[in-house]
TrEMBL record:
Compartments (UniProt record): Cytoplasm
A Pfam family of this chain: DAP_epimerase
Broad enzyme group: isomerase
A molecular function GO annotation: diaminopimelate epimerase activity
Source organism: Pararhodobacter aggregans
Protein's name according to its UniProt entry: Diaminopimelate epimerase
SUPFAM superfamilies per UniProt: Diaminopimelate epimerase-like
Length: 275
């Protein structure tokens, strides 16, 4: 049972096809519980989403965000939902620069030439920070395919392939997500080089499965490709749901891409009482 006895209004948004429910809890207590996230995240029983993002107040930032996966687990980062919510708050306030807090700490969003860029923070390349189950060279993880491990506030395992199109995404993604190398499981990205600083990426998300895009995954993939000498630090990535751009600066990894507000709807108190 959720703590909310009231109907719950939410927005459905897409960030390059990454599918979100956004709940605005500014000015009240947070409502999301693992049971609510799992119940709503179920595409048959509930509403369906890749992630639920709950917006709430923060004393030191313009707003704060919590992220939940469709399986009811939490995530420390979600780049595409961060872009979507920053876009909403910029539209609401008319501001072109915002601060926001996630589990990663205080981050920033800026509007440049009509596009919202978010700073996802510095990439983490120490095995403890990703985290891995033991000391490893994160640039060459001991798994078939020689992937790179990168933390963006959440774990990522990036495979540099000749043809991301040909990868058995579900089968490999699921297996790597649950590999004992990753004590908190992992997101899994498969990338291939399309041109200079241009990557194709397909993704399997921890707690959500195959998705059309993943913002933190795009950041991790761009970092992995740059560290392996495949690209520079500014990269365009083509995902199944659209194009994301990543710019790895000294102050953090910046991300932008398309945002869509799809609809607003209300979940009934009756349904919430079943969770
Ligand atoms: N879609 C996201 C990442 C969501 C979190 C992930 N599934 C996890 O568990 O870490 C993005 O845009 O970054």
């Amino acid at each position: 049972m959720t703590p909310s006895a009231e109907p719950l209004t939410f927005r459905k948004m897409h960030g390059a096809g990454n599918d979100f429910v956004v709940i605005d809890s500014r000015g009240r207590s947070r409502v999301t519980t693992p049971a609510l996230a799992k119940g709503l995240g179920d595409r048959h029983r509930g509403v369906g989403f890749d992630q639920l993002a709950e917006l709430h107040d923060d004393p030191e930032a313009d707003f704060a965000l919590d992220f939940w996966n469709a399986d009811g687990t939490t995530a420390g980062a979600c780049g595409n939902a961060t872009r979507c919510v920053a876009w909403l708050v910029m539209r609401e306030t008319g501001r072109d620069r915002l601060t926001l807090r996630t589990e990663r700490g205080l981050l920033e969003a800026v509007l440049r030439n009509g596009r919202v860029w978010v700073n996802m923070g510095a990439p983490l390349t120490d095995w403890r920070e990703i985290p891995l189950s033991g000391p490893q060279d994160t640039l060459h993880l001991p798994l078939p395919g020689d992937p790179v491990g990168v933390g963006m506030g959440n774990p990522h395992c990036v495979f540099l392939t000749h043809d991301a199109e040909g990868v058995a995404l579900e089968e490999q993604g699921r297996a790597v997500e649950h590999d004992p190398l990753f004590p908190e499981r992992t997101n899994v990205e498969f990338i291939s080089l399309l041109g200079k600083d241009h990557l194709r990426m397909r993704v399997w998300e921890r707690g959500a499965g195959v998705t059309l895009a993943c913002g933190s995954g795009a950041c991790a993939a761009a970092v992995a490709a740059a560290l392996r000498g495949l690209t520079g630090r500014q990269v365009v990535l083509d995902l199944d749901g659209g194009r994301l751009e990543v710019d790895w600066q000294d102050n953090g990894v910046w991300l932008t891409g398309p945002v869509a507000e799809v609809f607003t709807a209300t979940i009934t108190a009756d349904f919430l009482a079943t969770l």
